[in-house]
Specification:
The protein has 16 helices and 27 strands. The chain is of the alpha/beta class. Strands 7, 8, 18, 19, 20, 21, 24, 25 and 26 form a nine-stranded mixed β-sheet that branches. Helix 2 runs parallel beside helix 16, helix 5 packs across helix 7 and helix 7 crosses helix 16. The longest helix has 35 residues. It is globular. The relative contact order is 0.17.
């Protein structure tokens, strides 16, 4: 009957469906086997930014060592770098959605407890943040390293000032000082260090220098000299007005090596473990394919201060309550993963520039910095800076490709704490790798940070009212709440101390110099440590972290150059401990 045939037909259809599902599952299993049954690499490096590109390049110098470098963003040759990323001014790349592929457009951070989260600029793609940042190649204070040694109980031979200086020199070819001052500067490294002459500066740069000198801060030509203070010209990782990222300096010369494999558009889900031993990396599944697996004898995590702790937590290494909340199997519980975030707070005034003093869009945004010692933090010199810029972000109200200048260009002068004591945190919002973690910078939460910013704003007013600055502007404004107020009106408000505090808490931003979310330290003496002095993750095997997240605190400088120096240093540590290249045949050692 029709009903009988209908029942039999339904059974046949169900059987066919089960067969199709089984065949599909078999196909998927076969696909997984194909992508995972490869020969194990010696090293898989996660992240091709300032640290990861350096490490992958240095480790693959040994032709007997295989290295796979996986990067969440695009993989591109140096010659294929978009023009807007090459030019001296990064503002267009940072501000335009056109370049979202080279950033984490959904990453947000809360700056202070009085603010809502907003976009946090970090780079994605080969070169990482070094492909979109301000190209400022300034060193940390050598005393930063001595402080790390004392604070985190690190070996002086590895992390002390003398060895740090060696690696700052190793990475650079300082065009101005490399030959004349070889005891301080390098002349044969992969990163060119240049400085623009004063006639090439912007108008705000020159006014900032003039004000600093007149106000008694002094002038020191070489910002990277260990004894420098006061006003200086920025050293920049640039050659012939073209950015030199770690993709350019480190990966490009290594791309033709048969033992180095660079994989772009590869978002990492987690690190794979056999017990407590890291054995590889799992790519996130996406709409086009099941995530690949990269097996390796050693895993090096260089995803940066924000994403390195997130990957550790997704992999089962982190605070117990986080792993429990997201049902992540525990490999090793460490409450410090994601904690201790250290970031430089900055607050600034807006300079509404007269037409004659407006820059062309591609010109360098900044060339001068003023460092000073507040006297409010015992034992630390150059803990504060006065920062300036010839233009803030994308120039307002114009098409950058059709006009050189137009009304509405805004410059800035601001004050920043470069030795902050406040600490923040990185949180997981989901165990899905495509969901960025939450970032709480917690700026100005330490009373001494707030005190130094108050004092710094008082100093900033002297710069803002200096004739060299005033001649450039139609007016100077302060963003306050939903309003923008003339500086004079802002300073005329009653209860000035309360107003300034409120302004600092609601308007302070970050300098994009985050560090310390996987702090380095002696595991026997430092209870806040996530990795040891060699970058090895405490509590597990065959896993290291190499990036700014391991710094015990942020250096008193932009972080990029110190990250590259640390990656150079740890590359040599890894080579020696693992018996690579020039260290092959030597006993393994924990220090130099």
């Amino acid at each position: 009957t029709q009903s009988t045939w209908g029942a039999q037909g339904a059974k046949i259809m169900a059987a066919r469906l089960r067969l199709r599902v089984s065949l599909f599952a078999l196909l998927c299993l076969s696909f997984v086997c194909v992508v995972t049954a490869q020969t194990s690499y010696d090293y898989v490096v996660i992240g091709a930014g300032s640290a990861g590109a350096t490490v992958a390049s240095r480790l693959s110098e040994d032709p007997l060592v295989t290295v796979v470098l996986v990067e969440a963003g695009p993989n591109f040759k140096s010659a294929d770098t978009p023009y807007e990323m090459q030019v001296p001014n990064p503002s267009i790349v940072v501000s335009s959605p056109k370049f979202d592929a080279y950033k984490w457009p959904n990453l947000q951070a809360r700056r202070t407890k009085h603010q809502q989260p907003s976009w946090y600029a970090r780079g994605r793609g080969v070169g990482g943040t070094s492909s979109i940042n301000g190209q400022l190649a300034i060193r940390g204070m050598l005393d930063d390293f001595e402080h790390w040694v004392r604070e985190a109980h690190l070996p002086e031979a590895i992390w002390g000032a003398a060895n740090a200086l060696n690696y700052y020199k190793k990475l650079e070819t300082d065009v101005l000082f490399g030959v004349s001052e070889p005891e301080i500067h390098g002349s044969q490294g992969p990163v060119p260090i240049n400085r623009l002459s004063e006639p090439e500066w912007g108008h705000v740069d020159r006014a900032q220098k003039q004000a600093a000198v007149d106000l008694g801060y002094g002038w020191f030509m070489d910002h990277n000299h260990p004894n420098s203070t006061g006003a200086s010209v920025y050293a920049i990782n640039s050659q012939n007005s073209r950015r030199v990222s770690t993709n350019d300096a480190y990966l490009e010369p290594a791309r033709n090596r048969s033992n180095l494999f660079i994989v772009g558009e590869c978002l990492v889900d987690k690190i794979l473990f056999d017990g407590r031993k890291a054995i590889g990396v799992k790519e996130a599944d996406n709409k086009t394919h099941i995530g690949r697996v990269f097996f390796a004898k050693n895993v090096i995590l260089s995803a940066g201060t924000i994403h390195s702790p997130a990957i550790l937590m997704r992999s089962g290494v982190g605070p117990g309550y986080v792993l429990s909340k997201y049902s992540i199997p525990v490999v090793h519980e460490n409450p410090n993963v994601g904690s201790h975030l250290n970031e430089h707070p900055v607050a600034f005034a807006l300079l509404h520039l007269k037409t004659d003093f407006q820059p062309i869009w591609w010109q360098r945004h900044t060339n001068c910095i003023v460092r000073y010692t507040s006297g409010l933090l015992d034992g630390f010199e150059n803990d504060m800076t006065i920062l300036g810029a010839n233009q803030l972000g994308d120039t307002i109200g114009r098409d950058i490709f059709s006009n050189d200048t137009a009304p509405g260009v805004i410059g800035i002068l601001g004050v920043a704490v470069f030795k902050p004591l406040s600490r923040g945190r990185v949180y997981l919002k989901s165990k899905k790798p495509e969901v960025d973690p939450a970032v709480d910078c917690n700026l100005l939460s330490h009373p001494l940070d707030m005190q130094r910013m108050r004092d710094g704003f008082g100093r900033l007013q002297h710069f803002l009212n200096h004739p060299a600055v005033r001649r450039l502007v139609d007016n100077i404004t302060i963003s306050y709440g939903e309003d923008e107020m003339l500086l004079e009106d802002f300073l005329a408000q009653p209860r000035q101390d309360q107003v300034i505090d409120d302004w600092l808490l609601t308007q302070t931003s970050d300098a994009q110099h985050c560090a310390s979310t996987c702090k380095m330290g002696d595991p026997k003496l430092d209870r806040t440590a996530v990795v040891d002095a060699s970058g090895r993750v405490i509590g597990v095997e065959n896993l290291r972290v190499v990036d700014a997240s391991i710094f015990p605190s942020a250096p008193r400088a932009n972080t990029h150059l110190t990250v590259v120096a640390a990656a150079e240093l740890l590359s040599d540590v890894i080579k020696r401990e693992d018996g690579l290249a020039q260290w092959r045949g030597y006993p393994k050692a924990d220090s130099f």
